[in-house]
Write a structure and sequence with these properties.
heterodimer, A: mainly alpha, two-stranded antiparallel sheet, 2 strands, B: alpha+beta, four-stranded mixed sheet, four-stranded antiparallel sheet, 24 strands, 25% helix
Amino acid sequence: MTGFIIRRLGEAIVVVLGVTIITFVLLHLLPGSLARDILGNRASPQAIAAFNKENGLNTPVWNQYWLFLDKLLHGNLGYSFQYNRSVDSLLASELPRDLVLGGLSLIFSLAIAIPIGVAQAVRRNGALDYAGTGVSFVLYSMPQYAIALLLIQFLAISFHVFPAEAPQSASAIGMLEHPSGLVLPVAALTLVTYALFSRYMRSSAIDTLAQDYIRTARAKGLPERLVLTRHLLRNSLIAVVTLVGLSIPTILTGTLIIEQVFNYPGAGLEYFNAALRNDYEVMLGITVLVGVVTVLGNLLADIGYAILDPRIRY
Amino acid sequence: MRNVTRRWAAALGTVLVVLVAAACGSSSSSSGGSSGGSSNQGSSTSTSTAPTAGPGLTSATAPSGARQSGGTVYYTEGAGATPNYIFPMTSAQVCGTQNISQFNAILYRPLFWYGNDYKPTIDYSYSIGQQPTFSDNNQTVTIKLNPWKWSNGETVTSRDVMFWINLYKADPGKNYCGYVPGYFPDNVTSVDAPNAQTVVLHLNKSYNPEWFTYNELSQIYPIPLAWDRTSLSQPAPTSDNGHLPDATKSGAENVYKFLDAQSKDLGTWASSPLWSVVDGPFKLQSFTTTGQVTLVPNTDYSGTPKPTISKFVELPFTSDAAIFNEIRSGGPSAITIGNLPSAYAPQTSTVEGEGYVLNRAASYSFNYFPFNLNNPKVGPIFMQLYFRQAFQHLIDQQGWIHAFLHDTAIPTYGPVPVSPESPLASVNASTNPYTFSTQSAATILSSHGWKVAPNGTTTCEHPGTAATECGAGIASGEGISFNIDYQSGVAAIESEMNDLAAQAKRVGININLTTHPFTTVIGTAIACQPSQADCAWTAENWGAGWIYAPDFLPTGESLFGNGAVANYESYADPQANQLIGATITGPAAGEAQALSNYAQYIEQQVPVVFGPTSIGSYQGDAGTLVAKNLGGYAANAFGYMLPEDWYFTK
């Protein structure tokens, strides 16, 4: 296992390097100029020339990439001209908040989806299964935006049960100190994620229920509760673990809509805004980060397989 | 069969739930009365009408309840627009409303204050400087200062004004966003301070006093000598000992760099010994990295009135939807002053019913988009005055305002804003010289040698340079086809451009539409020569036109002068240059007439395509919502705020 992890980490470096090259080239193929974008429509030619010189933008692209790599190796993800902040500090303030939002919704959605998915599989084609399927389809087919607005309309504007916006604290701990403000954004994200997980869980559990070892366990008289928890659940979780591994990068940057609607500044929205404003270094910084996290997420999923299924060896 | 029935029942239930949800969703964002299309699809001529937007709150709100002391005003920053620069010498990089009018102008009072009560004029009662006097054939400007104090106890003196000018002159990149090459401070040959309360500027030639007051003196902020250093470890100067670093050009450059770097260190603002020295009515109590600003009264504020509210909190938002949801949801930090995004204009009455007054003030601006007159392919067509005039006939401003902008915009026919009206620029800008009429456009093209092919391609039938011919550089058989690139993500602009393309097609002009983010669009529109690679652009519409700040007089030295910084279209016209020059250097009494002459000429010349100008502090706002229990709030023509005037009532 140790060798496998080291090998995967080595691959990760190559993957991340490739991602930076592709992203860097694509960003520099975009029309317009960073100096113009940043300095605006009143900037004099002298100001534009000074900006380009100061930031190395008057040098060849390969040299600019080398400068970027050099900074990256020194832990410097660059500087956001739009926010007047280092990308490091920008991400350091936003990623913890994203972890709170994405982490809580992941936990809640798994906590709901796994038992319901199993229950649907066990009661396949029963009332519970149809109800669960209906709810999942509704939630899955609804845009995140619509779910978020519905929650706000009913629970914030009409009945004033919860605030319409997330806590505005700059720190993750500060956000947790105002749990009522977290209810709606976490709920909106949970509902969408739940729909996905529950479908996979149901499908996986149905497949597992058809396995010989389930039939054997039942034939041996094992109580149904133990059949479900010891044999069905563990073996059905592999598909969900794959999904969880893949969704880890999404936790950090995939909550764009929720961040927009609930006034929840995070890295997903940051990336979107950076793309609109040609804030190259923010885009590069987040891309590198997502590349790393994606590789790590897959690695964690692989480790999870080995834990869930002792037959799996690396 | 049983299972099939159940599945159908489940599916039907799903559909019903989705429909109910969709219905609920649409109820919160109904499209109101918008017709969803241009109101005038034919070739008929629409008549000019009065502006549909406005007026702003021309006098301060005065609720009937008893006046209270204290209270917190919560204000909505623009979506994604949080302050990121505190030093008032705001560079072009950070030159935005969120940094200037809504932030540092509250902490650091400019030398002169403009725009109160929705008038685009100067207000000396809120200014540090008294009315300037011009002498020596308007080549010498003398400014006396009111005896204001900094919050550290020092007096605001003429040396503080000189400090600002020294830094401005020393900045090698000329980063300050008010800078126009050749003008302030390049046109100031020397500065004297005969005493602590008097500044004398000697100019390189005679300038119109109004122009100089509104477009040059408007750029000055007195700044405290406590900032005249190059590191925080140095003691803060309290007086000029003759050896302060800004006295030399290199020293001033180092001070500028130091203050610029400190200003970019956002996390230290609230605790900085620099930024805590203020002369404005409020000082910074806290600033979060998410962009939330908390201001508290400066108890040493010298101006009048003194602040009544106890706290002014500016709240950051990630989107227009988040702003609107927060306005509607109320709660303990209910929004007191909120900018209503234009997408929610149809719900104005609902929000007003929840305790707000809508201030439909426009910023002092005008909307337009440029052609590239130097484009190597279609530039010769854009160069033709008749073509530009014909094209302006295709702009259905009234239809766009009603159908796409929810009646929250003002028709715009020239560079002088119609609303708020200025006594200094009293031009008849409310009459459309080129009313919407495809027939008129077709007639103009036909009379200049073009064979108009409705819904086809209009081609040049009579090349040549005579009055009835197509014009120089246009070949026989050449068609009119070009690209308009516009800002993506804004429904109103998209609808406008689609309508324009459709109307143009009716006279055989083929417009290809492309979209890009705002920064790309505005970054593509650059002045160029036909031989340059980046001169391929034909028309760029970034949707926000031009805002007059900190050049508050609507003259054209930045816009339409030959080689001006924002003359992206490469318009070059000797008469326009002469008329612009007359607004800058003409006699004091002739400014209004000079502005009128300039504005009328530009309206006639249409060097750019004029379009409806949105109202609101931010472009695209439907106005500003002000809580009904907040008194003392009035619109400012330039978007500045005077929180010292505000008070709550019971």
